[in-house]
């Protein structure tokens, strides 16, 4: 859970908010909606692509942040502790992988494989640093590892 203004945001609510954000970004039935795009004129602030479909359906990098740090749970820190705390609701995703993330001068991979059949690395949540397992949990929960 994430603590926000002294309240806890459940994983189910987080996923719902993230889904609503994506829906708002894409819109339904070509309705005019606010969306995260690119191609702003740096001097006037106007859209350079306007309603061009490339901009409207562009998955901006700002959308990756809540996926990586929220859903997958890679929590940025300034010290040598690597924290992974996924907010994926229990029993909803059978597997995922976030691979080749450059973090503090190292390459990090995070794998969740509920049964161990998808990635053939074993069952559970694995965190690799430079190709070596540094943390493992059989369940989808917060785990930490020192990365010296």
Task: Outline the structure in words.
With 148 residues, the protein is of the alpha+beta class. The chain has one domain (2-146). The chain is 20% helix and 30% strand. The protein contains three helices and nine strands, in the order ββαααβββββββ. It has helices at residues 11-26, 53-56, 64-72, and strands at 2-4, 7-9, 74-75, 81-84, 95-103, 106-113, 124-129, 132-137, 143-146. A hairpin with a 2-residue loop joins β5 (95-103) and β6. α1 (11-26) runs antiparallel to α3. The relative contact order is 0.13. The mean pLDDT is 79.
Approximately how much helix is present in the residues?
10-25%
Name the structural class. alpha+beta
- The N- to C-terminal Cα distance equals 27 Å
Q: What is the arithmetic mean of pLDDT?
A: 79
Shape: globular
Q: Would you report the number of β strands?
A: 9
Task: Enumerate the strands of the largest sheet in spatial order, edge to edge or round the barrel.
Answer: 5-6-7-8
Order of helices and strands: EEHHHEEEEEEE
Biggest sheet layout:
4 strands, antiparallel
What is the CA-atom radius of gyration, in angstroms? Answer: 18 Å
Which ranges are low-confidence, i.e. pLDDT below 50, for 5 or more consecutive residues? none
